[in-house]
Amino acid sequence: VLELWVGDLKVVFSGDLGTPRNVMEGRPSRVEGADFVVIESTYGSRRQKGLEETRREFEEVISRAVAEGGKILVPTFVVDRAQRVLYELLLLRERGLLPAGLSIYFDSPMGKRVTDIYRKYSGLLSGEVQSLMLQGKDPFGLPNLRYVESVEESRSINDVSRALVMAGSGMCTGGRIVHHLRHNLWKSSTHLVFVGYQGRGTLGRRIVEGASSVRIMGEEVAVRAKVHTINGFSAHADSEELLEWASGFSGSPLFFVVHGEAESASALAGALSDRLGFKALVPSALSPFDLRELKSAKVLPAPARPVDERDRVRRLLEEIRSSFDRLASAHDPEALSSTLPLLEAARTILKTAEEKAGYRSA
Q1: Helix 340-356 crosses helix 176-184 at what angle (to 10 degrees)?
Q2: What is the pLDDT of residues 129-184, one digit of tens each?
Q3: What is the pLDDT of residue 180?
Q4: Which ranges in the chain are annotated with CATH 3.40.50.10890?
Q5: Are 195 and 74 in contact (CB under 8 A)?
Q6: Which of 160, 173, 342, 347 is deepest in the core (most CB within 10 A)?
């Protein structure tokens, strides 16, 4: 949560507001006073499952996947979600529900560094995790866990027939999970376990919505893997939790509802107004507002017309072209080689953009 003062006006940003049920961190900070609140709405229109129900669901999915053999792929955000998954896997291992011989790969150059930061600042983690650490246990210390950093190590996982692989990105828009999907999504023995929100237009969303095939790295890949979704691990507050946090504000702040699909944002704005009596609006992208005028306005203005999306697309493409020209003219082979994973991810994202625009390359 960020508090910002602009002269005599106070603006509060919720950021990705955590759930009070968050297993990794403590409860989100409460703020009482503000003139304006910018609040996220990822789950502004729905409730999440409880902790115990989510854990039972995860246990059933992992147990079934392990029993059937094959690879278990877990697309995950490298910060927070990955550490939560490692912790939940450890709990299953301690209960004897995860075979000691199952190889587990955290395939991310950042993975070990981020997890070490969580260990270093363990005092900021939840009471549940700290309780485990007081027993002398490492909440992320799974037997047979291997952190994968190099491209060569990542590719070698293709030769392993039975393993659990965690890799970013969480929505499959890039990163090493794309490589693993290309090699395993077409196999009926594969289990694909989503543990986070899949945004509209992403590869992960298309798979979750039941696509029979998807385009990955320029190839059409059949979706024969068994697909599971565990939404309860999300670090985002659900609709009731968002309202509970908002109810802590005194006075009459104006809420800007952002960071959510149209249905979720509109539902939360309506609930803020109908149930809590706050003024709320859903701004369009890049719409400007004069906070001083809004502070004294009796009627909320309609959001200003946003910048023409076609102009934004053209500007972005020009920036991408400039980046391409600079990289193409680089003279250091070693430096270029280090960018290969990023370039492969960028290619995948651009291919997805082409498909959304209605262009299908040969």
Answers
A1: 70
A2: 999 999 999 999 998 999 999 999 999 999 999 999 999 899 999 899 999 999 99
A3: 96
A4: 51-233
A5: yes
A6: 173
Structural tokens at position 293: 């005028």
What dotted CATH number matches 51-233? 3.40.50.10890
Instruction: Name the β-bridge partners of 281.
Output: 256
SS3 9: strand
Full DSSP string of 104-150: EEEE-TTHHHHHHHHHHTGGGB-HHHHHHHHTT--TT--TTEEEE-S
Task: Kindly indicate the confidence band of residue 276, based on its pLDDT and cuts at 50, 70 and 90.
Answer: very high
> Pairing mode, if any, of strands 226-229 and 191-194?
parallel
Q: Measured between alpha carbons, how far is 353 from 316 in angstroms, rounded to an integer?
A: 12
The pair of structure tokens assigned to 124 is: 């900021």
Q: What are phi and psi of 76, to 5 degrees?
A: -150, 145
Please, are residues 41 and 264 in contact by the beta-carbon 8 Å criterion? yes
Q: What is the mean pLDDT of the chain?
A: 88
Residues 6+ apart with CB under 8 A from 188: 224, 225, 226
- Mean pLDDT in residue range 88-96: 94
Calculate mean pLDDT across residues 222-231.
94
Pairing of strands 213-216, 219-222: antiparallel
Q: Given a cut of 80, is residue 259 above it in pLDDT?
A: yes
Length of the chain: 362
Is the CATH number of domain 2-48+236-296 3.60.15.10?
Answer: yes
Q: Cα–Cα distance between 257 and 173 in angstroms, integer?
A: 25
